[in-house]
């Protein structure tokens, strides 16, 4: 099939990824300019796609007046990220966080309120109070879907975007992809593009060996990271991995955010508390990892000291809302919170700004480094964005993209990109035999675990990079038996891209930072002289993967006396020893 | 390279007696984020075609006849 055989769909603003940030971006464009044509393209089905497919247990980072100020929040997240943040982007989130909660509330999303009708905020972070539970958070996707319908956003379900398109001047101008059920190609020409394809959650392999047992929704295979990279966009701080504390063999958070305010905590094998604060940070994860590997390991979620009614409350939230199969997992192993502590472990690695800090570089307007391209949610570089950040940056990107589309003049698509991509998309179906996607995926993800998982060792990562590149050389051998396998094959391309990025970014920053996330055994110190900067990863003119630095924008909020707070997370003496 | 068939026990089961896919229902197939539920050509009912499940449960929650059961994949059980 050639370029001329594929019908081109025209739209003003294209949003790729219909999980959390994507629908908000699409609706925002329509709210701003009802006459603009908006298309939302989703690999799955927007009704139940993405991280919040079943709902959510709470807002992890809500800045609610009377409980916290935007300045306090920006300070805390800067400290939790060892200083490497773009504060203007954090501030834009912090200031819009409360209006977004009110908007969602008015749309019918249920947040927990106290007797007086105020939001029932909980303290989980080390310094401030930012967690807002939503025990009835099952209906978020339904509510978003209703808004999409109301604003007549065009929805294209079951399409996987595979490459961004550009015009002859180098501006992003749409995308090309495939239907995941028919393998038909699709080309959409757009005046502005918002990407919201979520985390890169399939780089590492869960300890269970089950490819789809990842923490992140496995539809989030890093396609957006790969597409942005190939379009020439900068990615930032990819060495700051996401590594999460989960239940052993089950991919839900344990979850100290829900249980902490009710008296549960993370403990060692002796039932002792060893971290001061359960908020997910690299520093916390390092203490977690040390305890796990020590004679006091493994690590557990301790609830067996709580009252019956408290445990029932915890079960109701944790077994019905965000990861409702959890109760079945426990039943299968006869685990009862009343009787014994629940074993925990650490997750596979990933790129996710929602929980950590790495991703496609964006500024406070959601703009990437390529004109016409915006990115929001877990794939963009604003740290600790979580669900509310995905909504806020979805909104910001929707506004920015709408404005860009409004003033964009006529343009001509670069056809060579399209012809090249059509050949890549066709190849796995045309081969008579070869390597099935599952096998190649398993191999590269197993290599990631063996060579790239922290603690990071230089020589080991160098070997890992070499091995990953040898899988890259095998990509032309991918064989797909049907359209579904073609989607998986194209995902393998993204996974290999992300694995190479993880190796190169980790080798580039020759220091340790962000606790476990970038703990380099042979460079154990944090080097503020050389490395107080963002790292960049990008495709250079020769098409090679290159690294560089980006200075930290001047702080707008100073850190004050708490600046080392996240480096003191270990309990001085076990609390109940 | 020749390719072998590779068997695995799938986590999601559909009660064929309850499933009304033959009357046009495709709810579970539509909502699955990983697109692993399909119509079984031989029975006309929904079934799990690919062992690629996130055990997230929209299929079970949204089925109008309670025909779907999501189990934990064997490797994790
Ligand atoms: C298990 C779990 C629990 C969590 N708990 C909480 C919590 O309690 N509180 C909180 O605040 N946050 C929580 N988070 C984080 C929060 O859910 C995410 O930060 C947020 O939902 C991310 O939104 P997003 O739009 O970036 O990604 P998603 O909502 O995941 O959406 C990404 C979408 O892109 C689609 N997509 C991917 N690739 C392509 C492609 N190539 N073409 C087209 N579409 C594509 C996917 O199918 C998906 O629908 C949790 C996350 C997980 C995974
Ligand atoms: S949703 Fe239920 S009834 Fe409908 S096709 Fe699926 S299993 Fe059958
Ligand atoms: S549990 Fe989730 S991934 Fe598995 S079949 Fe059902 S909807 Fe699909």
TrEMBL record, chain A:
Keywords in UniProt for this one? Flavoprotein, Oxidoreductase
Q: Does the keyword Acetylation apply?
A: no
Top-level lineage group: Bacteria
The identity of this protein, by name, is: Oxidoreductase
SUPFAM superfamilies per record = FAD/NAD(P)-binding domain, Succinate dehydrogenase/fumarate reductase flavoprotein C-terminal domain
Q: Which InterPro entries match?
A: FAD-dep_OxRdtase_2_FAD-bd, FAD/NAD-bd_sf, Fum_R/Succ_DH_flav-like_C_sf, Fum_Rdtase/Succ_DH_flav-like_C, SdhA/FrdA/AprA
**All residue ranges annotated as the FAD-dependent oxidoreductase 2 FAD-binding domain in the record:** 12-383
Q: Where is the Fumarate reductase/succinate dehydrogenase flavoprotein-like C-terminal domain?
A: 446-551
UniProtKB/TrEMBL annotation, chain B:
Q: Which domain of life does the UniProt lineage start with?
A: Bacteria
**The keyword Coiled coil appears for this protein:** no
Leader sequence range is none
Give the InterPro entries listed for this entry. Answer: 4Fe4S_Fe-S-bd, 4Fe4S_Fe_S_CS, PSI_iron-sulfur_center
Q: Could you identify this protein by its name?
A: 4Fe-4S ferredoxin
The UniProt keyword set, sorted, is:
4Fe-4S, Iron, Iron-sulfur, Metal-binding
Q: Enumerate the PANTHER family for this protein.
A: BSR3197 PROTEIN, PHOTOSYSTEM I IRON-SULFUR CENTER-RELATED
Pfam families, per this entry? Answer: Fer4_7 (PF12838)
List residues of the 4Fe-4S ferredoxin-type domain.
10-42, 44-73
Q: Which PROSITE patterns match?
A: 4FE4S_FER_1, 4FE4S_FER_2
């Amino acid at each position: 099939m050639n370029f001329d055989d594929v019908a081109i769909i025209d739209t003003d603003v294209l949003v790729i990824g219909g999980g959390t940030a994507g629908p908000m971006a699409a609706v925002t464009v329509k709210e701003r300019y009802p006459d603009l044509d908006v298309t939302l393209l989703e690999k799955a089905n927007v009704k139940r796609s993405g991280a919040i497919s079943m709902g959510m247990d709470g807002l992890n980072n809500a800045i609610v007046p009377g409980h916290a100020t935007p300045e306090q929040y920006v300070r805390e997240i800067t400290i939790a990220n060892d200083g490497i943040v773009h504060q203007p982007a954090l501030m834009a989130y912090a200031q819009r966080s409360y209006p977004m909660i009110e908007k969602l509330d008015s749309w019918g999303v249920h947040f927990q309120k106290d007797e007086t009708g105020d939001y029932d905020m909980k303290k989980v972070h080390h310094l401030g109070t930012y967690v807002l539970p939503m025990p009835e958070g099952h209906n978020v996707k339904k509510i978003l879907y209703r808004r999409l319908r109301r604003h007549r956003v065009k929805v294209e379900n079951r399409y996987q975007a595979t490459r961004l398109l550009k015009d002859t001047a180098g501006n992003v101008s749409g995308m090309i992809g495939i239907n995941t059920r028919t393998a038909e190609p699709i080309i959409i020409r757009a005046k502005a593009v918002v990407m919201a394809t979520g985390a890169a959650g399939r780089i590492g392999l869960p300890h269970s060996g089950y490819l789809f047992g990842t923490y992140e929704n496995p539809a989030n295979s890093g396609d957006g990271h790969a597409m942005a990279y190939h379009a020439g966009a900068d990615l930032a701080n990819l060495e700051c991995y996401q590594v999460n504390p989960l239940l052993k063999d089950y991919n839900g958070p344990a979850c100290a955010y829900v249980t902490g305010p009710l008296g549960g905590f993370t403990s060692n094998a002796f039932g002792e508390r060893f971290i001061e604060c359960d908020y997910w940070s690299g520093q916390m994860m390092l203490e977690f990892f040390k305890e796990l590997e020590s004679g006091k390991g493994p690590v557990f979620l301790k609830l067996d000291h709580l009252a019956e009614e408290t445990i029932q409350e915890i079960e109701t939230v944790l077994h019905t809302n965000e990861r409702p199969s959890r109760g079945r997992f426990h039943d299968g192993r006869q685990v009862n919170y009343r009787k014994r502590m629940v074993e925990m472990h650490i997750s596979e690695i990933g790129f996710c700004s929602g929980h950590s800090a790495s991703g496609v570089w964006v500024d406070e307007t959601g703009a990437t480094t390529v004109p016409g391209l915006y990115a929001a949610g877990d794939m963009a570089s604003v740290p600790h964005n979580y669900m509310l950040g995905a909504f806020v940056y979805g909104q910001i990107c929707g506004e920015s993209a709408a404005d860009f589309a409004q003033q964009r003049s006529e343009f001509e698509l670069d056809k060579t990109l399209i012809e090249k991509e059509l050949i890549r998309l066709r190849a796995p179906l045309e081969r008579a035999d070869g390597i099935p996607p599952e096998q190649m995926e398993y191999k590269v993800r197993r290599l990631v675990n063996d060579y790239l998982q922290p603690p990071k060792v230089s020589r080991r990562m160098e070997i890992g990079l070499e091995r990953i590149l040898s899988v890259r050389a095998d990509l032309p051998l991918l064989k797909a038996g049907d359209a579904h396998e073609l989607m998986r094959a194209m995902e393998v391309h993204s996974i290999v891209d992300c694995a190479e990025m993880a190796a190169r970014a980790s080798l580039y920053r020759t220091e340790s930072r962000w606790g476990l996330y970038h703990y380099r055994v042979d460079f154990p110190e944090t080097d503020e002289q050389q490395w107080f900067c963002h790292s960049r990863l990008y495709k250079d003119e020769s098409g090679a993967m290159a690294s560089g630095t980006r200075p930290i924008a001047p702080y707008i909020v100073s850190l004050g006396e708490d600046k080392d707070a996240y480096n003191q997370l270990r309990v001085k003496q076990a609390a109940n020893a | 390279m020749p390719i072998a068939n590779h068997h695995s026990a799938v986590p999601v089961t559909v009660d064929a007696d309850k499933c009304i896919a033959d009357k046009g229902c495709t709810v579970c197939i539509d909502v699955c984020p990983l697109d692993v539920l399909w119509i079984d050509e031989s029975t006309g009912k929904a079934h799990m075609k690919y062992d690629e499940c996130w055990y997230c449960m929209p299929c079970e929650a949204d089925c109008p006849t309670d025909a779907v059961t999501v189990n934990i994949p064997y490797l994790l059980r």
